[in-house]
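FORM 7B: Structural annotation worksheet

SECTION A. Query
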Amino acid sequence: MNRYILLTVILLVFVLFTGAQNLEERYLSQANKEYLDKNYDQAYQYINFILTLHEDDELPLPARILGEKVYFFYLSSLIQTEAIEAIDDITSQLEKFPVIYSTRVSEASNQIQQIRLDKIEAARIEKDRIRKQEEEQKRIAEINKALQEERASQARLEAIREEERRLYAEKEQAFQEELNKIREAEIQRNEQQQEALREDMSLTQEIELQRSQQYQDERNQYEQRMIDLMAARDAAAVEQQKDLNEILQASLVSKDSSGS
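SECTION B. Predicted structure
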């Protein structure tokens, strides 16, 4: 029974060892095929599987030679595209398997590391630029906000001033209208006074004229009466003189008659 079990274990180990060798050969062949087809990322995956199988023992020469080529050309393809996503995984693998860390792989690794550093620096610069741009935009936005608030304040102040000017203009207009009414009333009163004065002067002149005319008429009448009186007196005197002449004539005639 023990012999049967021992034979079974030996057979199982032999099968597993044989299967592992066949699996490694298939992966090595597939890695070489992808490498020749320039599918370096696929070749990298296959060769890493083989490296994992020999993580604790010496790497076979074919795998070491193919691994160096795959790593170099995979790194070269990453350098051309500046793809740095797999760089940490590659670095970790190279630390585990320094046997494939050739001069050109080292240079390619350093180059892709520099590309990553440049990208990190470029990202930092871009982030800093974006930060400064955002800060500048924020500053400009704050300035614009302050300007808008200032313009709004100026607009409100101007609206208040405009309302004050409107009210002042209305009061000024009302005052001017009232002043015009007072002036018109004053002019009308002056005109009425002038008219009344003219009427008074006209009435006075008319009265004076009437008085003057009455005086002239009375004077004329007086003068006419005096003339009439003088004419009557003269006529009476003439008549008296005539009568006297007649008396004298009669007296003379009578005397002559007596003398004869």
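SECTION C. Observations
Residues 103-259 form the longest helix (157 residues). Helices lie at 2-36, 40-53, 61-81, 87-96, 103-259.

SECTION D. Sign-off
Analyst initials: ____
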